[in-house]
Amino acid sequence: MSIDTIKQNAEILNEAIIKFNSFKLELDSLQKNKQTTKDKSTKKVIDEQIMKTQSKLSELTNYIIKIQMNIQKLIDEELSGNAVQHT
Question: Which of 38, 55, 63, 78 has the smallest CB count inside 10 Å?
Fold first, then answer.
């Protein structure tokens, strides 16, 4: 049972990592646009978008860490369950 839960968590983790990479690419693009933009009002808008994207990345990072910790906990439980069965 725990193996299926681990697999489900791994799929969720993979999706979160893909989303993280997407946000990271977006952030890189925004930062490049900010460097090349001369207009102050446009830079202000880009700064706001950068802050929002950084916030999303931070939230997603925390989510990814929680998933990883959950997977590790499930693996530990599965391994300790197997150890009990073999003794």
Answer: 38
